[in-house]
Amino acid sequence: MHSEKDHSGYVCEPVRLARQSLWGEENPFLSVCRSLPGEIIIAFLLYFLLQRILVPVIGSFVVNMVLLPLFGEGLIDFMTPVQAWFEIIMIAGFIAYMRFAQRRNYAAMGFIRRKWALWYVMGFGCGLALFSVAMFLSVALSGGSIVYSGSLSPQMFFAALTGWMIQGMAEEVDGRGYMFLSITRKHREYVGVLASGLFFGMIHINNSGATVLSVLNTTLWGFLFCLLLVVTENIWFIGALHTAWNLAQGNVFGVLVSGNDPGAAIFRAELTGENVLLTGGAYGIEGNAVTTAVVLVMIVAALLIIRKKERDRV
From the CB of residue 190, how many other CB atoms can be counted at a distance below 10 Å? Predict the structure, then answer.
């Protein structure tokens, strides 16, 4: 891995490359945009423009004017993953801003080409393993059950997989590729971690069934994804982990995904009891204390790995 030291110590490759992309120091407007408040405001503006306006508007137009006439009513069963496909608009929008407004190349956004497929496969496996641990612990502690559903066809599984691949990477491009790496161009890494995690928690605060614990967990996930980007030095791993976590929730175990109904699934998991600390309530497993514990363990592990990288560079 290519890395170097500067005033902040160990620097992972995407952070180093993002810092090299700084330009226009004499331009007051660019200086404001690169300030901490400026980067945060731009992140929220881009997110709401792309995710809340363009994605639903363009998606609705294409579905109603193109896809439904072509495929008929059978498309309705696939509507959830089809809607996720349109989040490629968010990926394209953030990448376009980073490429042309910030003049960052793709490596400076986290898209390191070296062994990218291997990193993606490892991230996907890590996501499946993490959620399986959280799922089985939650079932055991709540007295719930997991039964075979058989409602997921191969076609639906493929549609769900591709939808989560786009959706997972979209949230990593905006939260880590843009927010974390943009802020760390002029600020210490921990500032980028805090801002990215809080941003990630805030954009999920209005999800159905959201609670204080669910927002805390989502914020912790944001912290973890930043740390894992530093550990792996690429965005492929965390994009795949994010994808696999959501796929396992919604279409493998059939539980709510951040408060949203997942639709068809291979299994159907039920978390019983009235203790929302174990069940997650209407938000799903991401809103329970087991997920909190799993994420905290992963954060500690990531920090230990980063600490070892720092010592190895001495």
Answer: 12
User: Which residue in 176, 17, 191 sits closest to 104, CA to CA?
Assistant: 17
The DSSP bridge partners found for residue 10 are 5
pLDDT of residue 26: 67
Q: Which residue has the tokens 């795949």?
A: 240
Residue 107 tokens read as: 């490596």
Q: What is the pLDDT of residue 24?
A: 63
**Could you give phi then psi for residue 263, rounded to 5 degrees?**
85, -140
Task: Name the token pair of 125.
Answer: 């496996």
| pTM (two decimals) | 0.93
Tokens of 145: 């059950």
Q: What are phi and psi of 87, to 5 degrees?
A: -70, -5
Residue ranges of the chain with per-residue pLDDT less than 70: 1-9, 24-26, 314
168-171: list long-range contacts, CB under 8 Å, 24+ apart.
Answer: 168/239, 168/240, 168/241, 168/242, 168/243, 168/244, 168/245, 168/246, 169/91, 169/235, 169/239, 169/242, 169/243, 170/51, 170/87, 170/88, 170/90, 170/91, 171/200, 171/242
Q: H helices within 143-235, ranges in order?
A: 154-172, 181-183, 189-202, 212-232
